[in-house]
Amino acid sequence: MRRQIVFRWSAQVALGNAMTKSLTEIIPVLQVAIGPVILISGVGLLLLSLTNRFARILDRARLLAKEVRSLSQDKPPQNLGLVRMLHLRALWLRAAIALASTSMLFASVLIILLFVQALIGASSALPVVCTFVLCLLSLIGSVVAFLWDIHLSMLTLKMELGPALKDQ
Asked: Which residues contact residue 106 at a Cβ distance below 8 angstroms, ignoring those fewer than 6 apart?
């Protein structure tokens, strides 16, 4: 019972502090929150590129898999290696998309955290720093997975063009 009273009192104090904040006290928070908003916009463009690549890989893999299934059983499929490579690329792109989305999530949480801390008068930088670091680590992981997909796409191209490259 005592905990509930203390919690209600602290919530009322926090809400009271939030309600008495003036616009001039909130403007610096808005200025600080612009950085994560820009980050969300940039990661959104990265996600657009990743999802387009992902869709193209899936379409190509489905087409090649259909060709492999249509071949007779006694003839070894030539495109099976390409299908496997496209599947591997799709896995890496899925990881990149998940990490980029996680980065956007952390950026959104960071914005909310900045406002909540400003409204309740908290001054601890640790939650903000930890959230920002998690956001950037997710973004770095996404870009690394994206770069690995580009490497795999060059290997896939080399597999497809193998006979043509040997003639030169």
From this structure: 131, 132, 134, 135, 138
Q: Is residue 5 part of a domain?
A: no
Q: Which domain holds residue 90?
A: 25-161
Return the closest-CA partner of residue 47 out of 145, 154, 130, 129.
145
> Which one, of 132, 57, 68, lies nearest residue 90 by Cα?
57
Q: Is residue 94 part of a domain?
A: yes
Q: CA 40 to CA 34: how far, in whole Å?
A: 10
In this structure, is residue 19 part of a structural domain?
no
11-63 pLDDT, tens digit each: 454 555 555 667 677 788 888 888 899 999 999 999 999 999 999 999 998 88
For residues 95 and 76, give the distance between their C-alpha atoms in angstroms, rounded to a whole number.
32
Listed in sequence order, the DSSP H helices in 20-125 are 23-70, 80-120
Domains held by the chain: number: 1
Model pLDDT, residue 17: 55
CA distance readout (Å), 27 to 21, 23, 129: 11, 6, 20
Residue 44 included in any domain: yes
CA dihedral sign, ordered 151, 157, 159, 165: negative
Q: What does the pLDDT read at residue 67?
A: 81
